[in-house]
Amino acid sequence: MDWDKLELNPRIIAAVRRVKLKSLREVLCVSGPDLQRLTGLSRSDVQQLLSVAATAYRRHPPCPALLLHHGESRRFDSGLRLSVGCAVLDELLRGGLPVGGVTELSGESGAGKTQLALQLCLSVQYPTQYRGLNSGAVFICTEDSFPIRRLQQLIRDQSCLRSDVPPSLISSLQFSDHVYIEHAADLDSLQECLSRRVPLLLARGVVRLLVVDSVAALFRSEFQAADWLERNKQLLTFSSKLHHLSMEFSTPVLCINQVKDVFSSSDNILGPLSSSMCPALGLAWANQVMVRLMMRRIQGTVARGDQTSALRRLEVVFAPHLPRDGRDAAVWKEGVRGVTSR
């Protein structure tokens, strides 16, 4: 990268070169506070660096990795979808999650991300005529224990959520027998799981959905700010494995991600414009996902019978086949449902 062509103070350019940041993408992969620690620059200098880098980056943004992977972008325009189990949210996603791609769902704690992931673990088990994939799911936990009680509650209330499915079919499905739970406490165990056990389940046809909850936990805990280059290499290795599994077995992959506070307006170039937060792990990860969704709490509550729920908003941040749009949602006993009117 020829930093001299950018309108930056020579002192800022010298600091960037000193820590061997060689491209705009590498700069934008590092958060503002981490850039301050790495370079020794002031907050205002880092804000100027991020602003100039983001402006230059927008002129020639890269396509998400999967757009370049075997020319697969066309398959997302008209292909098989996995329903999320709600007609309102399916409408937002044009039928649901694309089969054969990596979808990221980010949001703060309590937004409903894991709830929606559990819902998909049940939806995938329905026959294709009910927008399922007639198979099971593997759920990899990287930070918290698996929410088995919530899954059991969702199973008990499936007839309420899926009124489009005959009750006799719902009662015949042994949902809990087809959700395979894995725990990965570190990156080595995660790679072991993705290299051995998950491919075996996929090859046998017993699962057609892979969930990782969450992708940020291990990469945030195992690397310090100065290790950003090694972290990005590990991220690329991880995402490459996810793409391979997704394409080889025509399997939707859902990665739940954490969020961080926006350091400046330029730090939110791949997050919702209406939010004060953006997904964690920066552009190194953002360029590896095909669909980025964000779920967040918004002001207000909604009531139904004896239940009340805080309002949520599910938004499409980017996708090759979807416009940037969103739907309000609420979390009920039976699962996450879109809210059509308040």
Automatic annotation (TrEMBL):
Subcellular location: Nucleus; Cytoplasm
Record keywords: ATP-binding, Cytoplasm, DNA damage, DNA recombination, DNA repair, DNA-binding, Nucleotide-binding, Nucleus
Gene Ontology cellular-component terms listed: Rad51C-XRCC3 complex; replication fork
Pfam family of the protein (one): HHH_XRCC3_RpoA
Domain RecA family profile: 78-259
GO molecular function, one term: four-way junction DNA binding
Entry-linked PROSITE patterns: RECA_2
InterPro entries: DNA_recomb/repair_RecA-like, HHH_XRCC3_RAD51B, P-loop_NTPase, Rad51_C, RecA_ATP-bd, XRCC3-like_C
Domain of life of the source: Eukaryota
GO biological process, one term: telomere maintenance via recombination
Function noted in UniProt: Involved in the homologous recombination repair (HRR) pathway of double-stranded DNA, thought to repair chromosomal fragmentation, translocations and deletions.
Alphabetized PANTHER family for the sequence: DNA REPAIR PROTEIN XRCC3
Protein family according to the UniProt entry: Belongs to the RecA family. RAD51 subfamily.
Record protein name field: DNA repair protein
Phylogenetic lineage: Eukaryota, Metazoa, Chordata, Craniata, Vertebrata
UniProt gene name: xrcc3
